[in-house]
Design goal:
This protein is α/β, with parallel strands linked by helices. It has 13 helices and 8 strands. Strands 1, 2, 3, 4, 5, 6, 7 and 8 form an 8-stranded mixed sheet that branches. The chain starts with 8 loop residues before the first strand and ends with a helix.
């Protein structure tokens, strides 16, 4: 456990979605929960990030930090056990070579092609979803909704309006959680109060505005499992689709980060002291170097050894971040976002030159 000589720190967490890669976030949460001087006021999550957020609140309400760590492990272990019955498994060659992806799995290739030809309404007219039953069985949503230790925000995308819907306590339910994770090529849209919802990643991966607007903590920590950048241009059809998905699921996040930066700069320039955006401090925990090497299909791999590998990776990255940036909490941002404004600065300079 890190040795911090400063006082108690309060943060809010933004948890990205990404299938089995959400186990990395499990490891980050597990490590953060071990810090007695760290308080998590709020958590916003989408898809797998929402699963982690809800299980975190359930565990906190049941047994504090120890209960939350136990709940997270129980959730991911249950997911792994359920996946043993899935027809989509790694092939022998991948197992022998230590390849966590499913690229060479005949069953994965078959279902991948099938999902591009038929919709979930055609392939699964009864709308069976084993994950829904698993979540309903393992999560006590009454506990989640009465949890006073942490604020929880779960984002889904309204299919008809294209707008984000953020579910808060006391309205968080198994349907809200399934809506947040309803990838349209895999699952039917989830109906809630007469509205249809898809995966929240399209409009907030995760949504930051609830944390900014409804929490008092000014240190927002993004736990990122979808890289912003890739050094190589994708060449294969599957890699191109994967990169398009990453760009799509990061777009809303980048826009929110950019808005926070622009508002903060404007408020500092104009001296608008009352505006809450003024002192927002942004931080990021990620494992881009390791995740860049993983294929998109590995997000569907729920083998226990793989999930534990990702958990341990998340713990390591959280430990590294705590050692490097504990002193930044409450003082300054540790996530440099100046590159988000490079195009604006370049464009402004060009306009000035043209006018001159």
């Amino acid at each position: 456990m890190a040795n911090h000589d400063s006082g108690r720190k309060t943060i809010e967490l933004a948890l990205q979605g990404g299938g089995a890669h959400g186990a990395l976030t499990w490891g980050v949460l597990e490590r953060l929960l071990e810090e007695p001087q760290l308080h998590i006021e709020g958590v916003s999550g989408t898809s797998a990030g929402a699963m982690n957020a809800v299980v975190l609140a359930d565990g906190l309400e049941a047994g504090g930090a120890d209960g939350a760590r136990a709940a997270l492990e129980r959730f991911w272990r249950t997911v792994s056990k359920a996946a043993l019955g899935s027809p989509i498994q790694r092939d022998l060659w991948s197992r022998l070579n230590g390849d966590w992806s499913l690229e060479s799995s005949p069953s994965y290739v078959f279902f991948d092609h099938l999902s591009r030809m038929f919709s979930p309404y055609e392939l699964n007219p009864l709308n069976l979803n084993p994950l829904r039953d698993l979540v309903a069985d393992i999560v006590d949503f009454d506990r989640v909704n009465r949890c006073g230790a942490i604020k929880v925000f779960v984002t889904a995308t309204n299919v008809r309006s294209g707008r984000p819907r953020v579910f808060r306590q006391p309205e968080i339910s198994v349907d809200a959680l399934m809506a947040s994770a309803a990838l349209p090529f895999m699952f039917q849209a989830v109906e809630i109060d007469g509205e249809a919802y898809w995966d929240g990643g399209y409009m907030g991966n995760p949504a930051l505005f609830p944390l900014v607007d409804e929490c008092d903590a000014r240190d927002l920590v993004l736990v990122q499992i979808n890289p912003f950048e890739r050094p190589e241009v994708p060449r294969t059809a599957r890699d191109i689709i994967n990169r398009l998905n990453e760009i799509t699921f990061n777009t809303s996040l980048l826009k929110e980060l950019r808005a926070i930066m622009l508002l903060r700069d404007l408020i500092e320039t104009e001296g608008l002291e009352q505006e809450r955006y003024r002192d927002m401090r942004l931080h990021r925990i990620h494992a881009d170097d390791d995740l860049l090497d993983l294929k998109a299909s590995s997000k569907l791999n729920a083998e226990w050894a793989y999930l534990c590998h990702l958990r341990d990776l998340g713990r390591q990255r959280a430990e590294r971040w705590l050692k490097a940036h504990w002193g930044d909490l409450g003082e300054r941002s540790s996530f440099d976002l100046d590159w988000l404004l490079e195009d604006s600065i370049r464009s402004a300079g060009t306009i000035k030159e043209d006018r001159a």
